Amino acid sequence: MAQVKITQTSVSEIMESAIPNRTTFYFDSDLTGFGFYRTPGGTGTFFAEYRPVAGGTKKRIKLGRVGTLKANEAREAARRAIANAALGKDLATDRAVERASLTVNELVAAYINEYVATKKKKSSADFYRVMLSKHIGPHIGSSKASSLTRVEVQRAHTQMSKTARVSANRAISLLAAAYVWGAKNELVPIGVNPAHGIDLNNEEARERFLTEAEMARLGEAMREAETVGFEAKVTSAKHAPKGQRSVMHPSVTGAIRLIMLTGCRLREILHLRWSEVNLDRGVAYLPDSKTGRKAVILSAAAVAVMREMPRVGVYVVAGDSAGTPDEKPRADLKRPWTAICKQAGLEGLRIHDLRHSFASVGAWSGLGLPVIGKLLGHADAKTTQRYAHIADEPARRAADLIANQIATSIGGK
To answer: Would the pTM of this model clear 0.90, i.e. be above it?
Structure first.
């Protein structure tokens, strides 16, 4: 047992020192009962010790892991625990009661609100809330988190899979992560995770690459959409007079062209602001993409598309509220995209397939995978490996060219 002034600096120094052979306790020199311990596994945990007013043995409660909780936050939590004990409140008992009554809905919601929403992207938190309300909540949301079984989770996954096979897998991943976080914060017992070991649905990679002919048809459909327009039978407009045509706003077709010409994700284009674009330098700066901040190189063709797009608001792709004080980015392109694909004879094509097509053209042209990964903004090189089979094609053509010439010289058939 050692006594130190527990600060962020002193804790960091101890955690970076040699790993102890046995669990070592460090008590704060200022606040009696506050401390942290380090295990032979290398983990550190803040704790508070106190003796209940009614007497009995001294109790110790965990406050949180070192790294998850800062030293000053742990000190304040310990101060409250010790003060409450002096008033006759037993936090260890209160926490056990709270843990026993916590529902799955409450556990997952706490994980989203207290961790995902503060440590990760807002879009991730929003997505997880949808998973909770649509999939987890209706099936096991009211179950007690501490008593939920793996069998119950497997049954819930089976029910979810009847309507959404991929989303069912995502929901289980969210549930598993919530239990890991909950254990670290003592909301559920350590080692309890009924979402582990669940038999998930097989997921086939949905990669679709447009051919040159398909790109030409898509381009023709977009030109028609923004000039003469589509008839009601194509746009699916309800109660439209026979023969009436609907012309699309140039921001819509412009957005699709930008995705094709940059390989960006849909949201990256829809949320792009004019203030984040430098057309003279040919660069767009994305402050909050899926992989964090990144710069997108704009080709001459992409710059030309942007110069033709109307500037009616702060966003490159104008939405319904463009130019108003409460302007928001366009939510999606579902209806116009469906109509364009129908006119082009490409029904079932996803907007995300345009990103795959951008990468496939680069791979077919002989660009290396690192270059393609940089253009797409991949944080992990493994993500770009899906295009490896396409990237081999230029080398195959070169090998055939060389070998054919040699075969001709030596009289091969």
So the answer is: no
